[in-house]
Amino acid sequence: MVCTTKIAKAVEDFGGLVREYCMGNSLSLQDMAENVGYSASYIWRIENYKRYPEMDTKLNLPEIHH
Asked: What global pTM score does this model have?
């Protein structure tokens, strides 16, 4: 059930999922950006619903899938 819930959240509220992951792991935007290979500004835009990444980008953010 947890996996299904995370998938649903990733589809419905990906920015919120990224924010929760960062907060839950005490990661700054810069830390997250370095971990996943995207810029901190791109991560910020995802978290703040300014950018809606394609599914392939979502799948390339392995940190939040665990």
From this structure: 0.68
